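User: Second chain of the day. Same drill as before.
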Amino acid sequence: MKASKGTRAKTRTILQKRPRDRGLSPITKAFQVFEKGEKVNIVIDPSIHKGMPFSRFHGLTGTITNKRGAAYEVSVKSGNKVKIVISRPEHLIKNIS
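Assistant: Same format as last time:
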């Protein structure tokens, strides 16, 4: 059988919650507000499919460049290129450092 080439292919462990964290996340994560130039970590929440960034960017840190509707544009350095990742706030966490 041919291997699946979908957007969630090869993400068995990345897009998986620990047993005690299973279920829906708190609704307050959806109401987070970020400012331009703010540093954020991209941590994909697998229980929310809407506005999910591509799995390659899970765990990376970037800066907010713009707001696009309910989502944010995050500038992330991937290799030698700077890429724009569009993600909803449920998948973003403020970077403390």
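The CA atoms of residues 21 and 35 lie 28 Å apart.

User: Great, on to the next one.
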